[in-house]
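Hey team,

Filing this mostly as a record. A colleague (T.K.) asked me to run one chain through the structure pipeline before their review meeting, and I want the input and output archived in the tracker in case anyone asks later how it was produced. No errors, nothing strange. Just documentation.

Input sequence:
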Amino acid sequence: MNPWDQKFKEEKFIYGTEPNRFLKEQVSVLKEVTSIACYAEGEGRNAVFLAQKGKQVTAFDYSKEGLQKTLKLAAANDVHVETQLTDLIEDELELNQFDGAVMIFGHFSKQHQYEVLDKIIASIKSGGVFLLEVYEDGQLNYETGGPRSLDYLYNEQQLADWANNFERLHFYSGEVERIEGIGHTGVCKVLQLIIKK
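Output structure:
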């Protein structure tokens, strides 16, 4: 069993059932978006929130247990979310499929980070919007969630350089508070990005 299946197996939602605050605050940027992919979606809180906003949502995750919880949360909220068991490193994504994409705290080793981000961008149509929030390298100094290895955190300059290939609608590096279940528990250091393809 992969470690995420182990983590998501328990009944309670590790990261809660409410959407990520950055997504909630910025959801208007997705107003023209009809079909949206939620990558590394975990237990489905952001996918369900977007489905409640009338979006056609597909949740992608590496954990079967996480996707089962996504379906359970969607049913409890009387919305529909498609799910797709996907390894974002190993698997190919369909090209130009979605109007937009979201990835909240999807962490990969530095070796694979931009390979994954390139795949995500390729999966959205021209003019599509991508919204991202991840932990920045400095998060290692906080004990409020996220990977405990620098290799799985994101570097501000690298992300800024990558984002320069697109139309940048928002870029932020700094402290925010995230209270999301038992997984994210206080002030943390994040990178936020919204770009248009």
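Quick notes for T.K.: The first strand starts at residue 35 and ends at 39. The first helix runs from residue 3 to 8.
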